[in-house]
Structures are given as C-alpha cells and as structure tokens.
From TrEMBL:
Domain of life: Bacteria
Annotated AMP-binding enzyme C-terminal domain residues: 31-104
GO MF term (any one): medium-chain fatty acid-CoA ligase activity
Organism: Compostibacillus humi
Gene3D superfamilies: 3.30.300.30
Gene Ontology terms describing biological process: fatty acid metabolic process
Full protein name: AMP-binding enzyme C-terminal domain-containing protein
Amino acid sequence: MAKQDEDGYVYIVGRKKEMIITGGENVYPQEIEFWLSEHEAIEEAAVIGLPDDLWGEAVTAFIVAKGILEQDELKEYCRKKLASYKIPKHFIYLEELPKTEVGKINKKELAATGIKQLKIKS
C-alpha cells in the first residue's frame, strides 16, 4: 500500500494484509516500527494487530530491548511521535524476535505468542 502527499510524492506504507484496523482507523505497522527502532534502548521491534473486543484490533509492539525499558517510558516516547490511535496498547518484551528460515520476522509466531501472553481468546 502507498500514500501520496500534497506535493505528489508517493510513499510505501506497508502491505495490506499487515494493516491494523483499530477503532475504525487504519494503522500501518511499518511507521510504528520505524519510530520504535529509533529509540536508543530498542534493539529490534515488530508491530502487529491482535484481536480486541473493544477496538477490533489492538496495536501490539514486540520489543527486544538493549537494557531495562519501562512501558511508561515507551508510551511517552510514542506519544511524542505518533497519533494517539497508533500508540501500541500492549508492549511485549522478548529476548529475540522469531524469524523465518529466510530471516524475516515471523509475524504469525508473534501473534500466537501475543495471544498466549495476553490470554486473548482466539
């Protein structure tokens, strides 16, 4: 998927199947992942939508931190960079992100991990 700005520039924002719909708003994980990866205490981050009774999907970030990183600090950092509906509702800390055989982040495995950790009924 792509978007075009007022000057006519086109930007790739992500894949349609990865788009998160939360509270009727479209959220592209790539944007959130970019800002999270800019944080000095984050080694790696991945964002997906998990089922949510209220919002449809909840923006959920999986974080590999370089050290101790408080959830409140992360939320405050995101508030400075993202619209409120894009701020992850859940942060799940992992020692490493699961990867496929070709080295891509395995988002299906992340979803299963997130559902299990947050005890969401699937």
